[in-house]
Fold:
Amino acid sequence: MTKVSDLTLAQLRDALKAKDVTSVEATDAYLARIEAAKPLNTFITVTADKARQMAKASDEKLAKGEGGAIEGVPLGIKDLFCTEGVQTTAGSHILGGFTPRYESTVTSNLWRNGGVCLGKLNMDEFAMGSSNETSFYGNVVNPWRREGDDAPLTPGGSSGGSSAAVAARLCAAATATDTGGSIRQPASLTNTVGVKPTYGRVSRWGVVAFASSLDQAGPMAQDVRDAAVMLKSMAGHDPKDSTSIDRPVPDYEAVLGQSIKGLKIGVPKEYRIDGMPEEIEKLWAQGIDWMKDAGCEIVDISLPLTKYALPVYYIVAPAEASSNLARYDGVKYGHRTKDFDDILSLYENTRAEGFGDEVKRRILIGTYVLSAGYYDAYYLRAQKVRKRIFDEFTEAFSKVDLILTPSAPSAAFGLGEKTADPVQMYLNDVFTVTGNLAGLPGASVPAGYDANGLPLGLQLLARPFDEETMFKGMYAIEQVAGANRRPAAWWA
Amino acid sequence: MSIDKDTVRKVAHLARIAEPEQRLEPLAQELSGILGWIEQLNEVDIEGVEAMASTVDVSLPMRKDALQDGPTGGNQPENVVANAPKTEDHFFVVPKVVE
Structure:
């Protein structure tokens, strides 16, 4: 029979239900692949025993014809989701040894639906980064390489462990989170499908907080159908998250293949930025033609405040982070310095030892923009510009159903290539960060390849809670683009 | 706006992060670079615009003021202190704070 790792999540789900394969077999197959893929550094923690136990329990249910929507399907979990009894690091030294006594709502939902936990995936420290190079556990390596070139490339960030693991078929699908583009940019760089749902669609409870008004969890998947199945299993109202919205979760899989004829697709001219590679410009034009051919109406729209989105983000996100990360003090959990003589030096040295440079940089910026005398000039101003960006999208979505843009301004770049200048690294999120500021659903779909054979994605943005229309559009792009190449397994 | 070494020292103290003296100048330059880039927000007209803290336009839900079941509930001090570096009888232990 077909190798388990050649199956998509949906195919594996069906094979499990048909008893063509057992969950224990599938789990062992993935565990062997994870073991062989150590050079990619995708997992911080592999939970082999737990995985086999969960798989065995799933097989018992499947044997009786019972089980949830993804019964027996092995998954990777970004190490930002708290998992009961399994170390959760957020990619940071400061959470070293932290073993939650509770399970995040998202992972609880996945296990209730039958998912099997393979382990915890590497990520940028506290999800702050676009290349996975800020992780305390070392950078992840992209399974994709330029043709004829061995140079290691970034899998994107912050969900780089998730994107690389899915691209290398080390799990059927993975969870990820997106605060400024951390699902969509890595998806674009690894030929995977990444979905950031509407803010409030997925519970944030038990997800280590970075910037609470922007953070949203979503799936990283092999194809659009898999992303639809995963999102349905992750989403839902949660009273433990006061920003979680109480409305039914649609069956996203059911809309796949429905016609997109007559949909109005917005193309914002401000997303044509200086220095964007010609190939990305061409791919975008190609995407517009695909939508036209499918019977959509293309509408030129203007979002003039687009260029201010990143500067707004780099006030709002660090401000919220500086507040959220105040809890890491060497007292309640995680790392505590050995070098202290009073409570102040306990705090200051614990945090100096526990946080990496990028996290410190953002905490300092956040502290600065919230400090007396600067609050109005920076934080309040940023919140007002955010409102204007939100209004701009509301206006645009009164005229269009979806917005089509590139996902990222470049293909995967070399490790170490952009670490010298923080602002250059921040520009990775130029197309995605607007969706976080406005709370919109957004997704990246594999759409083509550059001259070096590296994958490129297209992004769709939709109205709040209109993931169904977004999935219809994503599926249409996937079908016509046919960008389903897989990276050569050079690491195994 | 550029920020100087003394400002970095002050902010690092507010953030409770020990920064060695030799890191202050490089940090001042890095942070000034980022803040300089952020300054472009001054071009945007924000007259009469309300500040937006969240995209979720609903009032915060209220629940009954009663003990919850499960992980957010009470009566589980051993779970609360389970991950603390140093504890004693369900208390967090820190250096003396009152002389």
Q: What stands out?
A: Residues 5-43 of chain B form one domain.
